Amino acid sequence: MTDFSTWDILRNLLLAARWTVVLSFVAFIGGGIVALLILFMRISRNRFARAFARYYVELFQGTPLLMQLFLAFFGIGLLGIDVPAWLAAGVALTLWTAAFLAEIWRGCVESIPRGQWEGAGSLALDYVQQMRLVILPQAMRVAVPPTAGFSVQVVKGTALTSIIGFVELTKAGTIVTNATFQPFTVYGLVALLYFAICFPLSKYSKYLERKMAAAYTHGR
Amino acid sequence: MTYVFDLGWLAQYYPVFLKGVAITIELTLVGGVIGIGFGIFCAWVRALGPTWMRPPVAVYVELIRNTPFMVQLFFIFFGLPALGFRMGELQAANLAMIINLGAYSCEIVRAGIEATPKGQFEAGAALALKPLQVFRLIVIRPALQRIWPALSSQLVIVMLGSAVVSQIAAEDVTFAANFIQSRTFRAFEAYFVSTAIYLALSICLRKGLDYLGFFLFPSARTESR
């Protein structure tokens, strides 16, 4: 039997952590784009678009991410395509992220006082102009801290993709455990690596939140 | 080969799903009650407790909140036995959920406690109540009332997150779906049905918690009307 040093374990985990980071980026950026679509439907004047966006969010927030991964994995397979795990993982995480970001951003848009809409309207701006020139620039400022905070959830969400066979940090942890029989060390290191990715994001989000709170109370 | 969506097998396997639902509910109830209780204790420590206890609780909260639930579960189920703590899959699942929810609810409850007006502490002290009595009799209930919606959401998130415990062979709803798809090869239908079950469970849980909040905090009734 080969002996594995702690460095061997850590090196393999670090190599796999790349994929956790890559998948997080893909899900966050893809999810952000889809979330914008959902957001515009959610706050549009069309009743059906609003209902669709509401049910979309309800559905993805009301079911486990793991089920969404399974359904993406087996559902895309029904089309007769041999689904690689990364594709199912990317699709499911993107849709899941979109639901949460759309809901967060909706709160930000709705936090903009009505008077801003009315003021923009009285300057004869049309709906798209009101949105682009008046509402969104203000809403985006409010949206930054909670969005940064949610990125932590995305990173943690990628751990579930190991179940459908995508080799990222958690899956690598299982593989290395099976080779080394040191579950305590390996899963401890896996947890620390996730912590190393997520903790700075959490702190950054808290910092942004405090900065914004200070800016607001200062203005009063 | 054409694929036909078919739920005809469901009648045969519904007991498997029923058992899964029972386990998921059991995990959520035990994890919810003990986890939130533990969270309230941790929140008390962080907001009002003895100074020497605060750093360890802060480390616990940050560690749990910044690592995936699945890794915590694997660490408890696979890692701890190496130190001599052996436990069954249900115990491990329960423990993981308690530890996880404890950290999240600590932060939520703490926000509620810290929003308590200072005068309430002073009024309690003026009535010659000890600090712990002030906390128990005056502070905690309005604090919980303030953050009840956030706490409810977190409990729903934890319930949905419990789908992962199937990975250590705890026989919850997801485990039922895995079992059925390995027997019938109807993977999509099995996960479709279990997703619907989770959706129903989360809607029921949310409604139930709203009702519980209505029952626990009578003063909220007049405010909301």
- Give the N-to-C terminal Cα separation of chain A: 69 Å
Alpha-carbon distance between the termini of chain B?
Answer: 59 Å
Number of strand elements of chain B: 0
Low-confidence stretches of chain B: none
Instruction: Outline the biggest β-sheet of chain A.
Output: none
| Anisotropy-based shape of chain A | flat
Structural class of chain A: mainly alpha
Corresponding CATH superfamily of chain B:
MetI-like
Q: What is the alpha-carbon Rg of chain A in Å?
A: 21 Å
Which secondary structure elements does this structure contain, and how are they paired or packed?
The complex is a heterodimer of chains A (220) and B (225).
Chain A: H1 6-42, H2 47-61, H3 65-77, H4 85-110, H5 114-122, H6 127-157, H7 169-180, H8 183-219
Helix pairs in contact in A: 1-2, 1-4, 1-6, 1-7, 1-8, 2-4, 3-4, 4-6, 5-6, 6-8, 7-8
Chain B: H1 10-48, H2 54-65, H3 69-79, H4 89-114, H5 118-126, H6 131-161, H7 173-184, H8 187-216, H9 218-224
Helix pairs in contact in B: 1-2, 1-4, 1-6, 1-7, 2-4, 3-4, 4-6, 5-6, 6-8, 7-8
